Structure formats: C-alpha cells, structure tokens
UniProtKB/TrEMBL annotation:
<dbReference type="GO" id="GO:0008198">
    <property type="term" value="F:ferrous iron binding"/>
</dbReference>
<dbReference type="GO" id="GO:0016702">
    <property type="term" value="F:oxidoreductase activity, acting on single donors with incorporation of molecular oxygen, incorporation of two atoms of oxygen"/>
</dbReference>
<protein>
    <submittedName>
        <fullName>Dioxygenase</fullName>
    </submittedName>
</protein>
<keyword id="KW-0862">Zinc</keyword>
<keyword id="KW-0479">Metal-binding</keyword>
<dbReference type="InterPro" id="IPR004183">
    <property type="entry name" value="Xdiol_dOase_suB"/>
</dbReference>
<keyword id="KW-0560">Oxidoreductase</keyword>
<dbReference type="GO" id="GO:0008270">
    <property type="term" value="F:zinc ion binding"/>
</dbReference>
<dbReference type="Pfam" id="PF02900">
    <property type="entry name" value="LigB"/>
</dbReference>
<keyword id="KW-0223">Dioxygenase</keyword>
<feature type="domain" description="Extradiol ring-cleavage dioxygenase class III enzyme subunit B">
    <location>
        <begin position="35"/>
        <end position="232"/>
    </location>
</feature>
<dbReference type="InterPro" id="IPR014436">
    <property type="entry name" value="Extradiol_dOase_DODA"/>
</dbReference>
<comment type="similarity">
    <text>Belongs to the DODA-type extradiol aromatic ring-opening dioxygenase family.</text>
</comment>
Length: 267
C-alpha cells in the first residue's frame, strides 16, 4: 500500500451528523477516493488529557459528549471496531520520541471523531482509535505530534486531525446556512494559502500571522488538529483543499488532504 495522506477535517456542530450541508457529500467522496485504511487514528479537541493517551479498546463506545440537541442525535451510533494493534504501535512511536504516552481502555469515540467519520466512512467498517490532545499542546507541539506518528501512514493508517478552521462560538448563529462575517472568510483564505504553500512557520505562528486569528479561535484547541495533520504529512506533499462552506455563521467546514493525490486515489 502507498503512504496514506493525512487529513484535516472541520467537524462543525454535532448536528453535522444529521445536517451534511455542503461538507458531508464532499467528505463521503474523499473517503471513497482513499485506499481502504488499516485504521484511522483521530486527534480531536474533545478529548484533552494532562498527557498523551491512546485508546486501546477493541470496541469503542460512541460518546454523545454534548447537550441540548434534538433527541435523534443521541440515538446515533458509530459501531466501528477499535485497533488495539495500531494503538500498541502508536504508543511505541510516541514513547520512543519522549511523549510518555499511556494506554487508555475507557475512552471511546467523541463527536470530534465519529461525526466526521460518519461521512468519510459511512459503513463504520474501518477500525478507529484516538490519541488525546495534551492540555498544554501548542501549534509547534502539534506539528511534532504529527511527525511522531507519521510512520503509521506508511503502515496503512490514516492520520486524521478533526477540528474547525474557524471556531468562535460566541458568535454562533442558529441558522445552519447563515453567512459568516467577513473576518471568518479572511481567516479561511489565509489558512488555504498557508497549507497549499507548505508554510509550516505560518501555521505554527498563526496568532501573529493570520488575520483575525484570536477572533477566529478564541481558544486554540480546534485549530491544533490542523498543524497536527500538516506534521503527519510527507514534506512538500501536494495539498487538496475541500471547500466545505460556512455553517452557523462561524463554523467554516473546510478540509485538507495532505498527500500524493494521484497515487492514493488509484491504489
């Protein structure tokens, strides 16, 4: 199998599971274009821990880690199997690089994992595991975390950073199709230029380089899966930008595929 690309996806609101809008069909097409992964390893901002942890369960639970949504959302399940063998390999790589990572047998799949995976792999037949986001992670550390786990891409594992390219919930609008304010589109345009230009320095120093960075991301946790996915990719790998549109006025739904597009799609 060729080296798999790494992905960044915007997972939006939990309602993305029921409201695919513009991004859902595009993620489904993206998943269908990939060679079947041995497993998907997900970094999500909805599992933050004091250090690095990796899920080792063979049957991860679908976690409904949100409140105040329609009852239908809480009935959804994503019954993908776990990947204990890949978890063991991930722990080996992490600890060899000084992350002092530990196994976790309790965590399942939070909505940052299963909601976008419902679109990418709707049959829930690809094994899934998660790596936690350390509470003290910064963009430089996120790149390093991706690089530490990058050898898994050569072993058939899809490395997935699930976050949001913009994430200011203070400005959340209740209409899924609401247009965003100008600053959100400016940040999206900057991010597209940074990833397609392989500007890792800009991605690390986004608070100083990106327009309206602190307004687009009042906190960093939904941004960090982007430098993680960048770090997990091969140096200079071609980038595909997937325009997911804007939802709820403030949640841009772009995704990025870092990898050899022609090789992966025809494997």
């Amino acid at each position: 199998m060729p080296r798999l690309p790494s992905l960044f996806v915007s997972h939006g609101s939990p309602m993305f599971a029921l409201e695919p809008a513009q991004a859902g069909p595009q993620l489904r097409a993206l998943g269908a274009s990939l060679p079947r992964p041995r497993a998907v390893l997900v970094l999500s901002p909805h599992w933050m821990t004091p250090g690095v942890r990796v899920t080792t369960t063979a049957a991860p639970e679908t976690i409904h880690d949100f409140g105040g949504f329609p009852a239908e959302l809480y009935t959804l399940q994503y019954p993908a199997p776990g990947a204990p063998d890949v978890a063991a390999r991930a722990l080996e790589l992490l600890n060899a690089d000084g992350w002092n990572a530990t196994a976790d047998t309790e965590w399942g799949m939070d909505h940052g994992a299963w909601v976008p995976l419902r679109h990418l792999f709707p049959d829930a037949d690809v094994p899934v595991l998660q790596v936690s986001m350390p509470r003290n992670l910064d963009p430089e550390g996120a790149v390093r975390l991706g690089r530490t786990l990058a050898p898994l891409a050569d072993e058939g594992v899809l490395l997935l950073g699930s976050g949001s390219i913009t994430h200011n919930l203070y400005e959340f609008r209740h209409d899924v199709g609401a247009a965003g304010p100008g600053y959100a589109y400016e940040f999206v345009d900057w991010a597209r230029r940074a990833v397609t230009g392989h500007d890792g320095d800009a991605l690390v120093h986004y608070l100083e380089r990106a327009p309206h960075a602190r307004r687009a991301h009042p906190t960093s946790e939904h941004y960090l899966p982007l430098p993680f996915a960048y770090g997990a990719s091969a140096p200079g790998a071609p980038v595909q930008v997937i325009d997911g549109g804007m939802t709820y006025g403030v949640l841009a739904m772009d995704a990025y595929r870092f990898g050899d597009l022609a090789q992966a799609s025809h494997a």
